[in-house]
Specification:
The protein is mostly beta strands. The protein has 3 helices and 30 strands.
Length: about 400
């Protein structure tokens, strides 16, 4: 998913009624109308149309409600008192419009939201699968999480190249962690994002000379995050990540913990080891959340990523920390990003702005071998003759949780 340069990231303008504290009054059974008006960016007013899906999710109770816009771009939902995460998603060809408001209060009377939508375009290389939740060590006792991977997919009709592509995760590591970057408007509850994404721990980069690693239309590339070895040989519920053509995040100078980063297997070519562009964290293993990572791929524009991280203004101290730093990656560099929430918590909070991912995919359980997988666009696949995946820049629509890793034999 590729964000256009000239579309700014807006914060939602909300008019939420009531100021009572959460409690019995907030969660009474009274029903009120939440009116949501989709506000398209300048230059896209002609995109306003009826039938666009608007979703309101009760943050604390987990209930979800949907309505469609009328021909003026307005939808009305009947909701009980509560705190809601509101999402609007629309797609017209490759033009994608998304908007999110994280903390909308509907308390004691009707409320109205004017929700600005952010314009983006469907991407060429997208994230197809995220496996981070681990599995059991059966037939032994215990849990296992040293076998993480992601899969990339060429969703375009032309050959794409992995050369110089970067991979990273965003701060905080977990969706329930303290988020110092995303704030809420104190009057409205609208989510306010910075004009960058905070990359944590390290940036990894594919090598190559520009055309070393082609990805044909519909082709996948496996990136091993932890352990390019045959994990399934010892733990049958895991996966074999020692396969020809796989790439791996491996650098034993920066990340020497062999529990997570053993020497790659004999089928992993040395030129398939990703480079560490910069390490900004303190861990001896690359911290890729088992609960709920925020994952992204990006490519530098107008400058090399090495030149970019050399700028003192681009690598800053994390507020409130004396040791942790982050890299301020421009939003327009991000090709694709996926927000993962942990299903065992009601304290999830988005880290990725709606221009990259307006929704999230939920991981419901850990150590079960489950994986987060992008849906196939069946109609587009039939027309193209190769696999095309859903790409609405909204993981709530594009992804699902599958029972088993796609790489499981």
């Amino acid at each position: 998913m590729r964000r256009l340069f000239f579309i700014p990231l807006f914060a939602a303008t909300l008019w939420a009624a009531g100021c009572s504290e959460p409690g019995k009054e907030l969660y009474s059974g009274e029903v009120h109308t939440l009116t949501v008006r989709a506000v398209y960016p300048d230059g896209y007013a002609e995109m306003v149309r009826e039938g666009v899906t608007v979703t309101a999710e009760d943050i604390d109770r987990g209930n979800s409600y949907k309505a469609s816009t009328d021909d003026e771009g307005t939808a009305r939902l009947q909701l009980t008192n509560g705190l809601y995460r509101v999402m609007v998603k629309d797609r017209n060809g490759k033009d994608i419009f998304n908007g999110t408001a994280d903390m909308v209060r509907v308390v004691d009377q009707d409320a109205e939201i004017g929700l600005p939508l952010v314009h983006s375009r469907a991407g060429s290389i997208v994230i197809k699968e995220i496996y981070c939740g681990g599995c059991m060590k059966y037939p032994q006792e215990g849990k296992y999480q040293s076998d993480k991977y992601i899969i990339l997919h060429n969703n375009d009709s032309e050959v794409q190249y992995l050369d110089s592509l970067c991979f990273a995760t965003f701060d905080p590591y977990n969706s329930q962690g303290t988020n110092v970057w995303v704030t809420q408007d104190p009057e409205t509850g609208a989510s306010v994002y910075p004009d960058f994404v905070p990359v944590v721990q390290a940036i990894w980069q594919f090598g190559g000379n520009g055309r070393s690693f082609p990805l044909e239309p519909g082709e996948d590339a496996v990136l091993v995050v932890c352990g390019a070895i045959d994990h399934a040989a010892q733990y049958p519920l895991s996966v074999n990540l020692n396969r020809e053509g796989y790439f791996v995040c491996y650098n034993n100078v920066y990340f020497w913990n062999t529990l997570y980063h053993p020497a790659p297997g004999d089928r992993i070519a040395p030129d398939h080891y990703l480079d560490v562009v910069i390490k900004v964290g303190q861990a001896n293993a690359f911290t890729f959340s088992v609960f709920s990572p925020a994952v992204a791929i990006f490519r530098a524009q107008g400058v090399t990523v090495q030149e970019f991280v050399a700028g003192a203004e681009n690598v800053i101290q994390k507020p409130g920390s004396t040791v942790d730093r982050i890299v301020k990656i421009p939003l327009e560099w991000v090709l694709d990003g996926v927000e993962v929430f942990y299903g065992g918590s009601s304290n999830n909070k988005k880290r990725i702005p709606p221009s990259i991912d307006a929704g999230y995919v939920t991981q419901s359980a850990l150590y079960t071998g489950r994986t987060l997988h992008r849906r196939t666009d069946e109609e587009a696949t039939r027309e193209a003759g190769y696999e095309i995946l859903m790409d609405t820049n909204n993981s709530s629509t594009d992804f699902y949780e599958r029972e088993q890793q796609s790489l499981h034999d």
